[in-house]
Design goal:
Elements lengths: L7 H9 L6 H9 L9 H24 L11 H11 L11 H47 L10 E6 L4 H9 L5 E5 L8 E3 L6 H10 L5 E7 L18 H18 L5 E5 L5 E6 L12 E6 H9 L8 E4 L1 H13 L3 E5 L2 H17 L9 E5 L4 H7 L5 E4 L4 H7 L7 E3 H8 L9
Parallel strand pairs: 1-2, 1-4, 2-3, 4-5, 5-8, 9-10, 10-11, 11-12
Antiparallel strand pairs: 6-7
Length: about 425
Amino acid sequence: MSRNELIPKNIAADVINQNPITPQQMRVLLDDDPAGRSLKKIEKYGPPALLGVHFLTLATLNQWGDSLPSFGTLPPLVHNSLQAVHNFSVNAADSPALREHIPYISLDLAGTWGLISGLRGLLLGRTGKKIEASQIEVLQRIAEGIFRYEMVPDHSAVFVGNGDRIGELLQELLPLDQVMLYSHEKITSDVWQHIQQTGRQEEIFESLDRGDFKHAREAVLLPVKDEDMFLPDEIGHDMTLDEIRLMIDIFDAYSQERGIPQKEVVIVGSPAMSQTYIESNRLIDSSGIDAIRTTVRLDEMVAQLNEGRDENRQIKIIDPTELVMQKVMALANGRDISFISTEDSFRRYGERFFDALSQLDYKPTGEEAVNVIYNITDIPTQTTASTRDIVIIIDPKMKEHLLQRGVPAEQIILVPELVTTELGIEMMNEV
Protein backbone atom coordinates (compact mmCIF):
# COMPACT_ATOMS: atom_id res chain seq x y z
CA MET A 1 0.00 0.00 0.00
CA SER A 2 1.44 3.38 -1.02
CA ARG A 3 2.12 6.20 1.43
CA ASN A 4 -0.59 8.37 -0.18
CA GLU A 5 -3.18 5.66 0.53
CA LEU A 6 -2.40 5.93 4.26
CA ILE A 7 -2.78 9.72 4.51
CA PRO A 8 -5.86 10.45 6.70
CA LYS A 9 -7.26 13.21 4.46
CA ASN A 10 -7.12 10.88 1.42
CA ILE A 11 -8.82 8.08 3.36
CA ALA A 12 -11.48 10.52 4.56
CA ALA A 13 -12.19 11.47 0.93
CA ASP A 14 -12.73 7.79 0.06
CA VAL A 15 -15.13 7.39 2.99
CA ILE A 16 -17.12 10.47 2.00
CA ASN A 17 -17.28 9.20 -1.60
CA GLN A 18 -18.55 5.77 -0.38
CA ASN A 19 -15.44 3.99 -1.67
CA PRO A 20 -14.29 0.82 0.12
CA ILE A 21 -11.16 1.11 2.26
CA THR A 22 -8.91 -1.50 3.84
CA PRO A 23 -9.07 -2.30 7.57
CA GLN A 24 -5.55 -0.83 7.84
CA GLN A 25 -6.77 2.46 6.35
CA MET A 26 -9.77 2.36 8.70
CA ARG A 27 -7.44 2.08 11.68
CA VAL A 28 -5.18 4.91 10.43
CA LEU A 29 -8.23 7.15 9.99
CA LEU A 30 -9.72 6.39 13.41
CA ASP A 31 -6.36 6.81 15.15
CA ASP A 32 -5.85 10.25 13.62
CA ASP A 33 -6.43 13.22 15.94
CA PRO A 34 -8.13 16.09 14.06
CA ALA A 35 -7.79 18.37 17.10
CA GLY A 36 -4.05 17.80 17.03
CA ARG A 37 -3.98 19.19 13.52
CA SER A 38 -4.71 22.72 14.77
CA LEU A 39 -1.87 25.20 15.18
CA LYS A 40 0.65 24.47 17.91
CA LYS A 41 1.15 26.97 20.75
CA ILE A 42 4.38 28.32 19.27
CA GLU A 43 2.55 28.97 16.00
CA LYS A 44 -0.29 30.73 17.82
CA TYR A 45 1.79 32.88 20.13
CA GLY A 46 5.00 33.36 18.09
CA PRO A 47 3.81 36.29 15.93
CA PRO A 48 2.36 38.26 18.91
CA ALA A 49 5.58 37.66 20.81
CA LEU A 50 7.67 39.02 17.94
CA LEU A 51 5.33 42.01 17.70
CA GLY A 52 5.97 42.63 21.40
CA VAL A 53 9.73 42.50 20.74
CA HIS A 54 9.24 45.10 17.99
CA PHE A 55 7.51 47.63 20.25
CA LEU A 56 9.85 46.97 23.17
CA THR A 57 13.05 47.42 21.16
CA LEU A 58 11.62 50.44 19.29
CA ALA A 59 10.72 52.13 22.60
CA THR A 60 14.18 51.31 23.97
CA LEU A 61 15.89 52.90 20.96
CA ASN A 62 13.71 56.00 21.16
CA GLN A 63 14.55 56.40 24.84
CA TRP A 64 18.29 55.70 24.93
CA GLY A 65 19.32 55.73 21.24
CA ASP A 66 23.06 56.14 20.67
CA SER A 67 23.90 55.29 24.28
CA LEU A 68 23.12 51.64 23.55
CA PRO A 69 25.76 49.27 22.12
CA SER A 70 25.53 48.84 18.34
CA PHE A 71 25.88 45.01 18.48
CA GLY A 72 28.05 45.34 15.41
CA THR A 73 27.63 46.99 12.00
CA LEU A 74 25.98 45.18 9.11
CA PRO A 75 27.75 44.98 5.74
CA PRO A 76 26.27 47.37 3.14
CA LEU A 77 24.72 44.52 1.10
CA VAL A 78 22.94 43.06 4.16
CA HIS A 79 21.92 46.54 5.36
CA ASN A 80 20.42 47.45 1.98
CA SER A 81 18.65 44.10 1.62
CA LEU A 82 17.03 44.48 5.04
CA GLN A 83 16.06 48.05 4.22
CA ALA A 84 14.23 46.77 1.14
CA VAL A 85 12.32 44.29 3.29
CA HIS A 86 11.52 46.92 5.92
CA ASN A 87 10.09 49.15 3.20
CA PHE A 88 7.20 46.68 2.76
CA SER A 89 5.91 47.91 6.14
CA VAL A 90 6.93 51.54 5.41
CA ASN A 91 9.80 51.38 7.89
CA ALA A 92 13.54 51.84 7.65
CA ALA A 93 16.51 51.56 9.96
CA ASP A 94 18.41 54.80 10.74
CA SER A 95 21.85 53.21 10.29
CA PRO A 96 23.64 49.93 9.50
CA ALA A 97 23.96 49.22 13.24
CA LEU A 98 22.28 45.96 14.11
CA ARG A 99 20.43 47.59 17.00
CA GLU A 100 18.60 49.79 14.50
CA HIS A 101 17.38 46.78 12.52
CA ILE A 102 16.19 44.62 15.45
CA PRO A 103 12.74 46.30 15.86
CA TYR A 104 11.96 46.01 12.16
CA ILE A 105 13.33 42.48 11.77
CA SER A 106 11.01 41.35 14.56
CA LEU A 107 8.10 43.23 12.92
CA ASP A 108 8.81 41.64 9.53
CA LEU A 109 9.08 38.17 11.07
CA ALA A 110 5.86 38.65 13.02
CA GLY A 111 3.97 39.61 9.86
CA THR A 112 5.38 36.81 7.74
CA TRP A 113 4.93 34.17 10.44
CA GLY A 114 1.40 35.33 11.17
CA LEU A 115 0.43 35.18 7.50
CA ILE A 116 1.85 31.66 7.01
CA SER A 117 0.35 30.36 10.25
CA GLY A 118 -3.04 31.83 9.41
CA LEU A 119 -3.16 30.17 6.01
CA ARG A 120 -1.93 26.87 7.46
CA GLY A 121 -4.47 27.03 10.27
CA LEU A 122 -7.27 27.64 7.77
CA LEU A 123 -6.23 24.65 5.67
CA LEU A 124 -5.70 22.36 8.66
CA GLY A 125 -9.01 23.40 10.16
CA ARG A 126 -10.87 22.38 7.00
CA THR A 127 -8.93 19.10 6.77
CA GLY A 128 -9.57 18.37 10.46
CA LYS A 129 -13.31 18.91 10.09
CA LYS A 130 -13.38 16.66 7.03
CA ILE A 131 -11.48 13.91 8.89
CA GLU A 132 -13.63 14.26 12.00
CA ALA A 133 -16.83 13.95 9.96
CA SER A 134 -15.52 10.83 8.21
CA GLN A 135 -14.48 9.32 11.56
CA ILE A 136 -18.01 9.72 12.91
CA GLU A 137 -19.44 8.18 9.75
CA VAL A 138 -17.03 5.21 9.90
CA LEU A 139 -17.82 4.51 13.57
CA GLN A 140 -21.55 4.59 12.88
CA ARG A 141 -21.27 2.22 9.93
CA ILE A 142 -18.99 -0.17 11.86
CA ALA A 143 -21.44 -0.27 14.78
CA GLU A 144 -24.27 -1.11 12.37
CA GLY A 145 -22.15 -3.68 10.52
CA ILE A 146 -22.56 -1.94 7.15
CA PHE A 147 -19.07 -0.51 6.53
CA ARG A 148 -17.61 -1.28 3.10
CA TYR A 149 -14.17 -2.91 3.22
CA GLU A 150 -11.47 -3.86 0.77
CA MET A 151 -9.83 -7.08 2.00
CA VAL A 152 -6.73 -8.86 0.70
CA PRO A 153 -7.30 -11.60 -1.89
CA ASP A 154 -7.75 -15.08 -0.38
CA HIS A 155 -8.78 -13.78 3.04
CA SER A 156 -11.08 -15.82 5.31
CA ALA A 157 -14.79 -15.03 5.52
CA VAL A 158 -15.90 -16.28 8.95
CA PHE A 159 -19.61 -16.65 9.74
CA VAL A 160 -20.49 -16.75 13.42
CA GLY A 161 -23.78 -17.19 15.20
CA ASN A 162 -23.92 -14.78 18.15
CA GLY A 163 -20.20 -14.03 18.13
CA ASP A 164 -17.52 -16.65 18.53
CA ARG A 165 -14.22 -16.96 20.38
CA ILE A 166 -12.56 -18.68 17.41
CA GLY A 167 -13.51 -15.80 15.12
CA GLU A 168 -12.20 -13.26 17.63
CA LEU A 169 -8.99 -15.24 18.05
CA LEU A 170 -8.43 -15.38 14.30
CA GLN A 171 -8.71 -11.60 14.11
CA GLU A 172 -6.26 -11.22 16.99
CA LEU A 173 -3.71 -13.54 15.38
CA LEU A 174 -3.85 -12.31 11.80
CA PRO A 175 -3.56 -8.90 10.12
CA LEU A 176 -6.79 -6.90 10.06
CA ASP A 177 -7.39 -7.42 6.35
CA GLN A 178 -7.22 -11.25 6.46
CA VAL A 179 -10.34 -12.13 8.49
CA MET A 180 -13.83 -10.73 7.91
CA LEU A 181 -16.53 -11.72 10.43
CA TYR A 182 -20.21 -11.98 9.44
CA SER A 183 -22.95 -12.21 12.06
CA HIS A 184 -26.72 -11.78 12.24
CA GLU A 185 -26.26 -10.33 15.74
CA LYS A 186 -24.28 -7.23 16.72
CA ILE A 187 -20.69 -8.06 17.74
CA THR A 188 -17.80 -5.96 19.04
CA SER A 189 -15.36 -6.46 16.15
CA ASP A 190 -14.32 -3.49 14.00
CA VAL A 191 -14.02 -5.69 10.90
CA TRP A 192 -17.41 -7.34 10.50
CA GLN A 193 -20.63 -7.31 8.51
CA HIS A 194 -24.21 -7.65 9.64
CA ILE A 195 -25.85 -10.29 7.47
CA GLN A 196 -29.49 -11.36 7.49
CA GLN A 197 -30.24 -15.02 6.91
CA THR A 198 -33.64 -14.15 5.51
CA GLY A 199 -34.80 -11.36 3.25
CA ARG A 200 -34.28 -10.40 -0.36
CA GLN A 201 -31.39 -12.20 -2.00
CA GLU A 202 -29.83 -8.97 -3.28
CA GLU A 203 -29.79 -7.49 0.25
CA ILE A 204 -27.83 -10.50 1.46
CA PHE A 205 -25.51 -10.25 -1.53
CA GLU A 206 -24.93 -6.55 -0.72
CA SER A 207 -23.77 -7.56 2.78
CA LEU A 208 -21.33 -10.01 1.21
CA ASP A 209 -20.15 -7.31 -1.21
CA ARG A 210 -19.48 -4.89 1.66
CA GLY A 211 -17.26 -7.52 3.27
CA ASP A 212 -15.44 -8.17 -0.04
CA PHE A 213 -16.63 -11.80 -0.01
CA LYS A 214 -15.84 -11.98 -3.71
CA HIS A 215 -12.13 -12.12 -2.89
CA ALA A 216 -12.37 -14.58 0.04
CA ARG A 217 -10.60 -17.92 -0.26
CA GLU A 218 -13.11 -19.81 1.85
CA ALA A 219 -16.20 -19.41 4.00
CA VAL A 220 -15.79 -20.69 7.55
CA LEU A 221 -19.01 -21.47 9.45
CA LEU A 222 -18.76 -21.47 13.26
CA PRO A 223 -22.12 -22.76 14.50
CA VAL A 224 -20.84 -24.20 17.80
CA LYS A 225 -21.38 -22.23 21.02
CA ASP A 226 -18.33 -21.11 23.00
CA GLU A 227 -19.15 -23.13 26.11
CA ASP A 228 -19.87 -26.22 23.99
CA MET A 229 -16.94 -25.90 21.63
CA PHE A 230 -15.75 -29.20 23.10
CA LEU A 231 -18.34 -31.98 23.62
CA PRO A 232 -21.40 -30.16 22.20
CA ASP A 233 -24.82 -31.76 22.54
CA GLU A 234 -27.95 -31.28 20.44
CA ILE A 235 -28.35 -27.70 21.73
CA GLY A 236 -24.65 -26.88 21.67
CA HIS A 237 -24.88 -24.95 18.40
CA ASP A 238 -26.34 -21.51 17.67
CA MET A 239 -27.08 -22.35 14.03
CA THR A 240 -29.50 -25.06 13.01
CA LEU A 241 -28.79 -27.57 10.25
CA ASP A 242 -31.23 -25.74 8.01
CA GLU A 243 -29.45 -22.42 8.65
CA ILE A 244 -26.11 -24.00 7.73
CA ARG A 245 -27.60 -25.41 4.54
CA LEU A 246 -29.14 -22.01 3.75
CA MET A 247 -25.77 -20.26 4.17
CA ILE A 248 -24.07 -22.74 1.82
CA ASP A 249 -26.84 -22.19 -0.75
CA ILE A 250 -26.33 -18.42 -0.40
CA PHE A 251 -22.57 -18.77 -0.98
CA ASP A 252 -23.17 -20.82 -4.13
CA ALA A 253 -25.86 -18.49 -5.45
CA TYR A 254 -23.65 -15.45 -4.82
CA SER A 255 -20.71 -17.05 -6.62
CA GLN A 256 -22.90 -17.86 -9.62
CA GLU A 257 -24.44 -14.36 -9.66
CA ARG A 258 -21.05 -12.63 -9.44
CA GLY A 259 -19.43 -14.96 -11.95
CA ILE A 260 -16.77 -16.38 -9.63
CA PRO A 261 -15.89 -19.99 -8.64
CA GLN A 262 -17.68 -21.67 -5.74
CA LYS A 263 -16.14 -20.94 -2.36
CA GLU A 264 -14.54 -23.59 -0.23
CA VAL A 265 -16.65 -24.13 2.88
CA VAL A 266 -15.38 -25.22 6.30
CA ILE A 267 -17.81 -26.02 9.12
CA VAL A 268 -16.49 -26.13 12.70
CA GLY A 269 -18.86 -28.31 14.72
CA SER A 270 -19.95 -31.81 15.54
CA PRO A 271 -20.56 -34.13 12.55
CA ALA A 272 -23.34 -35.67 14.67
CA MET A 273 -25.21 -32.37 14.84
CA SER A 274 -28.70 -33.24 13.64
CA GLN A 275 -32.19 -32.06 12.89
CA THR A 276 -35.36 -34.14 12.96
CA TYR A 277 -38.29 -33.70 10.58
CA ILE A 278 -41.76 -35.08 11.27
CA GLU A 279 -44.30 -36.26 8.69
CA SER A 280 -47.78 -36.93 10.03
CA ASN A 281 -51.25 -37.38 8.55
CA ARG A 282 -53.54 -35.89 11.17
CA LEU A 283 -56.57 -37.42 9.41
CA ILE A 284 -55.28 -40.85 10.42
CA ASP A 285 -53.78 -40.15 13.83
CA SER A 286 -53.88 -36.67 15.32
CA SER A 287 -51.75 -37.84 18.31
CA GLY A 288 -48.71 -38.15 16.05
CA ILE A 289 -47.87 -41.63 17.34
CA ASP A 290 -47.74 -42.96 13.79
CA ALA A 291 -45.82 -39.96 12.51
CA ILE A 292 -42.74 -40.61 10.39
CA ARG A 293 -39.56 -39.09 11.89
CA THR A 294 -36.52 -38.46 9.73
CA THR A 295 -33.28 -37.34 11.35
CA VAL A 296 -30.53 -35.78 9.24
CA ARG A 297 -26.97 -35.42 10.54
CA LEU A 298 -24.51 -32.73 9.52
CA ASP A 299 -22.03 -35.21 8.04
CA GLU A 300 -24.82 -36.84 6.00
CA MET A 301 -25.96 -33.49 4.65
CA VAL A 302 -22.39 -32.50 3.75
CA ALA A 303 -21.77 -35.82 1.97
CA GLN A 304 -24.89 -35.27 -0.12
CA LEU A 305 -23.92 -31.70 -1.01
CA ASN A 306 -20.36 -32.69 -1.91
CA GLU A 307 -21.63 -35.07 -4.59
CA GLY A 308 -22.47 -32.10 -6.77
CA ARG A 309 -19.41 -29.97 -5.97
CA ASP A 310 -16.00 -29.68 -7.58
CA GLU A 311 -13.21 -31.65 -5.90
CA ASN A 312 -11.38 -28.44 -4.99
CA ARG A 313 -14.54 -26.86 -3.54
CA GLN A 314 -15.62 -29.60 -1.16
CA ILE A 315 -17.32 -28.81 2.14
CA LYS A 316 -15.19 -29.88 5.11
CA ILE A 317 -16.08 -30.46 8.75
CA ILE A 318 -13.65 -29.72 11.57
CA ASP A 319 -14.76 -31.51 14.74
CA PRO A 320 -13.29 -29.79 17.86
CA THR A 321 -14.23 -32.80 20.01
CA GLU A 322 -12.21 -35.21 17.90
CA LEU A 323 -9.24 -32.81 17.85
CA VAL A 324 -9.30 -32.47 21.63
CA MET A 325 -9.82 -36.20 22.31
CA GLN A 326 -6.93 -37.13 20.02
CA LYS A 327 -4.75 -34.71 21.99
CA VAL A 328 -6.02 -36.09 25.32
CA MET A 329 -5.24 -39.67 24.29
CA ALA A 330 -1.77 -38.71 23.11
CA LEU A 331 -1.02 -37.00 26.43
CA ALA A 332 -2.58 -39.84 28.48
CA ASN A 333 -0.35 -42.29 26.61
CA GLY A 334 -2.08 -45.44 27.83
CA ARG A 335 -2.82 -44.22 31.36
CA ASP A 336 -6.27 -44.67 32.86
CA ILE A 337 -8.26 -41.45 32.40
CA SER A 338 -10.40 -39.82 35.11
CA PHE A 339 -12.67 -36.89 34.22
CA ILE A 340 -12.77 -34.14 36.87
CA SER A 341 -15.20 -31.23 36.86
CA THR A 342 -17.81 -29.47 38.98
CA GLU A 343 -21.09 -31.33 39.49
CA ASP A 344 -22.92 -29.15 36.98
CA SER A 345 -20.16 -29.63 34.42
CA PHE A 346 -20.13 -33.40 34.97
CA ARG A 347 -23.86 -33.62 34.38
CA ARG A 348 -23.37 -31.70 31.18
CA TYR A 349 -20.19 -33.26 29.84
CA GLY A 350 -19.35 -36.45 31.76
CA GLU A 351 -21.30 -38.95 29.68
CA ARG A 352 -20.32 -37.25 26.42
CA PHE A 353 -16.63 -37.35 27.39
CA PHE A 354 -16.56 -41.08 28.00
CA ASP A 355 -18.73 -41.77 24.94
CA ALA A 356 -16.20 -39.90 22.80
CA LEU A 357 -13.34 -41.80 24.43
CA SER A 358 -15.11 -45.08 23.73
CA GLN A 359 -15.83 -44.21 20.09
CA LEU A 360 -12.12 -43.58 19.57
CA ASP A 361 -11.41 -46.98 21.13
CA TYR A 362 -9.04 -45.75 23.83
CA LYS A 363 -7.91 -48.52 26.18
CA PRO A 364 -5.57 -48.10 29.18
CA THR A 365 -2.42 -50.20 29.02
CA GLY A 366 -1.31 -49.88 32.64
CA GLU A 367 -2.41 -49.06 36.20
CA GLU A 368 -1.16 -45.46 36.23
CA ALA A 369 -3.93 -42.83 36.05
CA VAL A 370 -4.19 -39.24 34.86
CA ASN A 371 -6.85 -36.59 35.47
CA VAL A 372 -8.51 -34.61 32.68
CA ILE A 373 -10.12 -31.36 33.88
CA TYR A 374 -12.83 -29.53 31.92
CA ASN A 375 -15.72 -27.29 33.03
CA ILE A 376 -18.51 -25.15 31.65
CA THR A 377 -16.32 -22.11 32.45
CA ASP A 378 -12.56 -22.05 32.87
CA ILE A 379 -12.58 -20.56 36.39
CA PRO A 380 -13.04 -23.87 38.32
CA THR A 381 -10.43 -25.41 36.03
CA GLN A 382 -7.92 -22.71 36.93
CA THR A 383 -8.41 -23.16 40.68
CA THR A 384 -8.27 -26.99 40.76
CA ALA A 385 -5.64 -27.85 38.15
CA SER A 386 -2.38 -29.41 39.36
CA THR A 387 0.97 -29.93 37.67
CA ARG A 388 0.09 -33.54 36.71
CA ASP A 389 -3.33 -32.88 35.16
CA ILE A 390 -4.38 -32.60 31.53
CA VAL A 391 -6.31 -29.33 31.37
CA ILE A 392 -8.84 -28.34 28.70
CA ILE A 393 -9.74 -24.64 28.41
CA ILE A 394 -11.60 -22.35 26.02
CA ASP A 395 -10.31 -18.88 26.99
CA PRO A 396 -6.78 -18.09 25.72
CA LYS A 397 -6.24 -15.65 28.61
CA MET A 398 -6.60 -18.49 31.12
CA LYS A 399 -3.47 -20.23 29.84
CA GLU A 400 -1.15 -17.74 31.54
CA HIS A 401 -2.83 -18.35 34.92
CA LEU A 402 -2.37 -22.09 34.54
CA LEU A 403 1.30 -21.67 33.62
CA GLN A 404 1.78 -19.59 36.76
CA ARG A 405 0.28 -22.46 38.79
CA GLY A 406 2.96 -24.72 37.38
CA VAL A 407 0.88 -26.64 34.85
CA PRO A 408 3.25 -27.54 31.98
CA ALA A 409 2.37 -25.85 28.70
CA GLU A 410 2.24 -29.19 26.87
CA GLN A 411 -0.53 -30.40 29.24
CA ILE A 412 -2.79 -27.42 28.54
CA ILE A 413 -5.23 -27.98 25.67
CA LEU A 414 -6.56 -24.67 24.34
CA VAL A 415 -9.51 -25.67 22.15
CA PRO A 416 -9.57 -22.59 19.86
CA GLU A 417 -5.84 -23.08 19.26
CA LEU A 418 -6.41 -26.63 18.00
CA VAL A 419 -9.17 -25.41 15.70
CA THR A 420 -7.17 -22.51 14.25
CA THR A 421 -4.21 -24.83 13.68
CA GLU A 422 -6.50 -27.28 11.87
CA LEU A 423 -7.70 -24.39 9.76
CA GLY A 424 -4.10 -24.04 8.66
CA ILE A 425 -3.32 -21.00 10.81
CA GLU A 426 -0.38 -21.19 13.23
CA MET A 427 -0.61 -19.38 16.53
CA MET A 428 1.54 -16.30 15.95
CA ASN A 429 2.20 -15.47 19.60
CA GLU A 430 2.41 -17.44 22.81
CA VAL A 431 -0.76 -16.78 24.78
